[in-house]
Design brief:
Helix content of chain A: 40-55%
Oligomer: heterodimer
Shape of chain B: globular
Strand order of the largest sheet of chain A: 2-1-3-4
Structural class of chain B: alpha/beta
Distance between the termini of chain B: 91 Å
Helix content of chain B: 40-55%
Shape of chain A: elongated
CATH architecture of the largest domain in chain A: 3-Layer(aba) Sandwich
Number of domains of chain B: 4
Strand order of the largest sheet of chain B: 2-1-3-4-5
CATH class of the largest domain in chain A: Alpha Beta
CATH topology of the largest domain in chain A: Glutaredoxin
Radius of gyration of chain A: 19 Å
Largest sheet of chain A: 4 strands, mixed
Radius of gyration of chain B: 26 Å
């Protein structure tokens, strides 16, 4: 370990590693890192995998990745916060991604979005208080031919309206 | 793997071809409407109706007409292909029984429709024809023969020469001559060189690259391999947006299959040429479409751009000479090698050669992907192929180039679509997004929409872009809320000029374009929102605010 690491930091890293040894998901993540030969340039791929396994990237998880890839924690944290797709907070049970690309926008994606925000009082990037629904806005999912598109739990749905969207969300609750 | 082996695979594939082929589009657009269930039902129905000997149900990529999806094409039934539109899973039985003669009530498309008839397909030639998850399909239509031809018949400088002769220009938007770029990388000294394929199609309203990667991944891989041979690289990276999971999984399959057959990896076609391709997945940052930011992201860092020069051709990934081209640029290469640069140069206009794929979307009757020769008048694309605006409305403007481009008003629809003509109008060719807006669209809102996009996507490295986009958005908001005066508009124009000229990378330099172009053609829409200026030159007959206060 890097000698410049301060004592409390060292303690925290040890705690993270100890915690990790008991969790199966960390083992899967480590296998994935091995596949990339612990290469530092594979950081984004590894963070994708980590998010897939854990749902979001909490601080200790980022610290674990930084130790394993021998990268400064600042670099890992910097990358995790730079890209929109990395979530640093826990997500709701269901996610609803409204595409806000140009084609969807001219065809009324903003109305879909405001219908959800009005009813559930959450803005894009937020989760309802009961942890049921996370609302996200995407920049463009490339489904412009079927605009406006909404992604419900990873499933793309074509030609949505505020009514169909609210109907789908209602079924989740 | 040698040419004979390749031909044997092609022959085997072609001889096992059944009489009738049902091509089911399984691209992201149609998949969202249960294309996978449709295919399963069709297969089951073929079995129950006992047509297994004659009918094959094939998974294919995008056929282009996404607005009418899910699509099922039928080959071998009549001289012309038949295209079923808006297919539903429960239509499977009717479609299969219609193969034995008779009609079914599923809507049938017209293959002579201008949407199809006016297209010229080079990049998308195999889209909707081959199964993107089977390399044999691609080989059967002559795939990887261009790579073989390059490796065995053409020395690397001649490959570069051929690409130069074709007049191909970068399809990512800037339009830099591809041959020149290849030549620079080839000449750059260095033992290690890299090829990067830019599949970070962040431009909202564009999905050409997604469709090519999903429908014909091997075409892009073959183009990359030829490029690697031409410039002397042995490692390639394919950078794809994480928003395109289907494209990623099909590319992974394609790379695996090509490696198994020895078409990628060590000793391609039993020559000393080695080439490996790795996929790099983006994580949602528009700025990563900029080449220096993309390279930072490939290296696993924050995707922030850096000043150029040095250009990537001299110092790119890990300081090595790097060739970066767009997906569509690479997709053109195999046709250029097979049919010659001169053939390619015969298509298009004097300065813009070949074809271009556009994603025609927005307020238009026929949504989808089209590939047209350069120089085609915009009117033909929008009015004939696209069918104009729906619901009896009028086309007001066409937006090209996304957040870096501009709005072309309907009066200029006779402009030929090529790099120079679009730039002259204050827009750009861009990557190929073409969003049509009708007369119900408010242009100030559109400008605001793009500015908000640029503000959120600004990486924050340089001040003009980071701070300028925020201020411009504030001014636009003030205008739309009817709180702005003529002076705010003047300030907005000044800021546009400043951000355009002082930003570090393409994102900031082009961020003001939507505002500049809407101001140029739709200024009246801004001006009707302006309020009288209490401190303006005509208020109380004085121009001096201090005097006004003391009065």
């Amino acid at each position: 370990m890097n000698p410049s690491v301060s004592k409390p930091q060292k303690k925290r890293i040890q705690a993270v590693l100890a915690h990790a040894s008991g969790d199966k998901r960390f083992r899967i993540l480590e296998v994935h890192m091995k596949k990339h030969q612990f290469r530092q340039d594979a950081l984004i791929e590894i963070l994708h995998k980590a998010q897939e396994l854990f749902g979001y990237l909490e601080d200790d998880l980022l610290l674990y990745v930084s130790v394993k890839l021998k990268l400064p924690p600042s670099r890992v944290y910097g990358v995790a916060t730079f890209y929109h797709l990395f979530q640093l907070k826990p997500q709701g049970e269901h996610t609803c991604v409204v595409c806000k690309g140009t084609a969807c926008y001219v065809k009324g994606a903003d109305k879909i979005l405001s219908a959800i925000t009005d009813l559930y009082k959450i803005s894009p990037g937020e989760t309802t208080k009961d942890n049921k629904i996370s609302l996200l806005a995407a920049r463009c999912i490339g489904a412009c031919g079927i605009a406006p598109a909404v992604v419900y739990d990873g499933q793309v749905a074509a030609k949505q309206t505020p009514e169909t969207t609210l109907e789908r969300i209602k079924n989740w609750i | 793997m040698q040419l004979d082996d390749l031909n044997a695979i092609a022959e085997k594939q072609n001889s096992s071809r059944k009489k009738i082929i049902l091509r089911t589009c399984m691209s992201a657009g149609c998949m969202s409407s249960q294309a996978d269930v449709i295919k399963k039902n069709l297969e089951a129905e073929v079995k129950t109706q006992g047509l297994e000997a004659d009918v094959e149900v094939r998974r294919v990529g995008c056929m282009g007409f996404c607005g009418q999806g899910p699509l099922v094409g039928v080959d071998g039934l009549s001289a012309k292909e038949k295209l079923f539109e808006f297919v539903k899973p429960e239509n499977a039985a009717a479609i299969i029984s219609s193969l034995k003669g008779g009609d079914c009530d599923v809507q049938v498309g017209n293959p002579d429709h201008p949407f199809f008839a006016k297209q010229m397909k080079i990049v998308r030639a195999n889209g909707g024809v081959v199964d993107p998850e089977r390399i044999e399909d691609y080989i059967a239509i002559g795939g990887y023969t261009a790579l073989h031809q390059a490796l065995t018949e053409l020395p690397p400088p001649q490959v570069v020469e051929e690409v130069t002769k074709s007049g191909l220009r970068g399809r990512g938007g800037a339009g830099f001559p591809t041959g020149l770029k290849w030549g620079t990388v080839a000449k750059s000294p260095g033992a290690k060189k890299y090829i990067v394929c830019n599949g970070d199609e962040g431009d909202p309203g564009a999905f050409m690259d997604r469709s090519v990667l999903e429908s014909d991944p091997h075409l892009v891989l073959e183009g990359m391999a030829i490029a690697a041979y031409a410039v002397g690289a042995d490692q390639g990276y394919l950078y794809v947006r994480a928003e395109y999971p289907l494209a990623i999984s099909r590319l992974q399959i394609a790379i695996k299959q090509a490696k198994q057959l020895g078409l990628l990896g060590a000793g391609v076609f039993e020559t000393p040429f080695n080439f490996n391709v790795d996929i790099r997945i983006g994580a949602g940052a528009f700025v990563c479409g900029e080449e220096t930011a993309l390279m930072a992201s490939v290296e696993g860092k924050r995707g922030t751009p850096r000043p150029r020069p040095p250009f990537p051709a001299e110092s790119g990934l890990w300081g090595c000479p790097t060739l970066i081209n767009n997906v569509e640029t690479f997709a053109n290469i195999s046709a250029i090698i097979k049919r010659g640069g001169a053939w390619y140069a015969s298509i298009g206009t004097e300065k813009s050669k070949g074809t271009k794929v556009f994603a025609l979307t927005g307020k238009i009757k026929n949504n989808g992907l089209i590939e047209v020769p350069m120089g085609i008048p915009l009117r033909q694309i929008v009015m004939e192929m696209g069918g104009g605006a729906p619901d009896g409305r009028q086309v007001k403007s066409v937006q090209t180039g996304g957040p870096s481009g501009g709005c072309i008003p309907a009066d200029y629809l006779d402009t030929p679509v090529d790099y120079e003509s679009l730039t002259k109008l204050g827009s750009i060719m861009g990557s190929g997004g073409m969003v049509v807006m009708d007369d119900s669209t408010n242009m100030v809102e559109i400008a605001k929409f793009y500015m908000e996009f640029c503000m959120e996507e600004s990486c924050g490295k340089c001040i003009p872009c980071r701070a300028g986009t925020v201020q411009m958005l504030n001014l636009l908001e003030k205008i739309t809320q009817r709180k702005a005066t003529a002076r705010d508009l003047a300030k907005l124009e000044e800021l546009c000029d400043l951000v355009k000229n002082t930003s570090l990378c393409g994102l900031g330099q082009t961020a003001p374009n939507p505002v500049i172009s809407t101001l140029k053609f739709f200024r009246a829409e801004y001006e009707t929102l302006l309020q009288p200026d209490p401190f303006g030159p005509h208020a109380n007959g004085t121009t001096n605010p201090i005097e006004l206060v003391t009065k």
